[in-house]
Amino acid sequence: MLSCADLGSDEEKAHKALAELCKIYWRPVFAFICRQGHSVPDAQDRTQDFFVMVLKGHLLQRADRTRGRFRSLMLRALQDFLRDAAEKRQTRKRGGHVQFVSWDDWMAEAPSQLSIPAQELESWSPERIFDVRWAATVVERALRRLGDECEKRGRRRVFDVLSSCLAAEREDVSYAKLSKTLGVAEVAVKRLVHRLRERYRALLREEVAQTVEKPDEIDDELRYLCSALATAK
């Protein structure tokens, strides 16, 4: 996705790519700002201000691709942005000619399924919250796509029943119980779970691929994603 920085001759394509990337990162950015002590309304304003900067290209123009993942770049840029905002808060010119998606639209599109107890949040660093929220968003986007695919094939109930198995250890899956719930043989349930897991892994790779520059970075970022989510359990 960093390659969209090179699409200066195709402004519309670059803007769409950046807008999609922002949908992945808005929740971790918002959570990071809240953890810094800002109220929810102020965090909403600052989140939008930050992404206006991203969508106008200011972030990618300064991108140093030798300094790590886009995830890390976003976090550093956010930290710089907040430091600058603390020194001088600009009046609400919010993006000028940039047409920005409304906050309510983003909130309605992808409510998070990850619930972090308040007492844990208080002990977590803003950086850890950013990483966990990023990982959860990527996972939820992959799951939503898988659910949509199943619905189009008339298998929404199969997804609803079996989705909890996708990340579970095999010994924790009760195929007998799932067989009874779905009304199909256990061997059929095992095939369905296997296929769903394969497709889920493929979709997760596609989502992660949007947040890295090179294909050979996907596996490392997937491992980092799993590590981040493991800390949230």
How would you sum up this structure, described in words?
- The protein is mainly α and 233 residues long.
- Helices cover 67% and strands 0% of the residues.
- It has eleven helices and no strands.
- The chain has helices at residues 11-35, 40-55, 58-61, 70-87, 103-109, 118-123, 126-152, 156-162, 175-182, 186-209, 218-230.
- The longest helix is centred in the middle third of the chain and has 27 residues, at 126-152.
- The protein is elongated, with a radius of gyration of 20 Å.
- The two termini are 29 Å apart.
Nearest-angstrom radius of gyration?
20 Å
- Major sheet attributes: none
Instruction: Tell me, rounded to a whole number, the average pLDDT.
Output: 79
Instruction: Tell me the helix content.
Output: 55-70%
Number of strands: 0
The rough form would be described as: elongated
Structural class computed from helices and strand pairing: mainly alpha
Distance between the termini: 29 Å
Strand content: under 5%
Q: Regions with pLDDT < 50 over 5+ consecutive residues? A: 4-9, 91-99
Number of helices: 11
How would you spell out the order of helices and strands?
HHHHHHHHHHH
